[in-house]
Amino acid sequence: MAKSCKGLAMELVKCLSESDCVKVENRPYRECAKEKSPSISSECVGLRETYFNCKRGQVDMRARIRGNKGY
């Protein structure tokens, strides 16, 4: 994993671990991250979108030449 996205991934996991989706419903992180569930806070949804955009930037050839954005 690139260094630019690693911090976002850790923040996303931390946010999801504190959400009701993982705590109350005992669902895996991956399943909670994929869905647009009401048990996930808007902060987690924002982190998820930012993380996915960061990962997308690693695959985009234009971004690979210029460097990944520092979200």
TrEMBL record:
Q: Which UniProt keywords apply?
A: Disulfide bond
On the tree of life, the source organism's domain of life is Eukaryota
The Gene Ontology CC terms held by the record are: mitochondrion
User: Per its record, how is this protein called by name?
Assistant: Cytochrome c oxidase assembly factor 5
The protein's matches in PANTHER family, at most eight in alphabetical order, are given as: CYTOCHROME C OXIDASE ASSEMBLY FACTOR 5
* Pfam families in UniProt: Pet191_N (PF10203)
Q: Mention one GO biological process in which this protein takes part, according to its record.
A: mitochondrial respiratory chain complex IV assembly
PROSITE patterns, per the entry: CHCH
Similarity field? Belongs to the PET191 family.
